[in-house]
Design brief:
Blueprint: H1 2-16, H2 37-40, H3 43-53, E1 75-79, E2 83-88, E3 98-103, E4 108-109, E5 116-121
Parallel strand pairs: 1-5
Antiparallel strand pairs: 2-3, 4-5
Length: 126
């Protein structure tokens, strides 16, 4: 009932009161178009966009590169200190995680499966 009343009032007002057509308001972006994400980004989002465009991964968001895990091609583990605790899921369907400390220097083996890991220096982006 209220919707009908509002609709009738709007129709009457538009037909009786307005003889000349109403100009529609133009959006402010119409002249320059819609801004891109790069133009609109600020702060950390802008820094992240610039660094990913350069091919860098400042916050380790992307999937790490696959390594063989052998002594010649160990899994690289980034760290800001000289040691880090590492968890290894030795088999694909295993539910247990083998945890061990990884120290800077030579590649070290997982005590359970024998995969090799090496600690590499990593600096924070900011």
């Amino acid at each position: 009932m209220a919707a009908r009343l509002l609709f009738r009032t709007a129709v009457r007002a538009s037909t009786t009161l307005r003889v000349t057509p109403v100009k529609t308001l133009a959006r402010g972006m119409a002249a320059g178009g819609i801004p891109t994400d790069e133009e609109q980004a600020t702060g950390l989002e802008k820094v992240l966009m610039h660094t990913t465009r350069e091919g860098k991964d400042p916050y380790s968001m992307f999937r790490p590169k696959e390594y063989a895990g052998s002594k010649e091609d160990p899994h690289l583990v980034p760290s800001i200190t000289n040691k880090r605790i590492v968890g290894c899921v030795c088999e694909e369907d295993n539910t247990a995680v083998v945890w061990f400390w990884l120290h800077q220097g030579e590649a070290q083996r997982c005590p359970s499966c024998g995969a090799h890991y090496k600690l590499v220096a990593h600096e924070l982006p900011h």
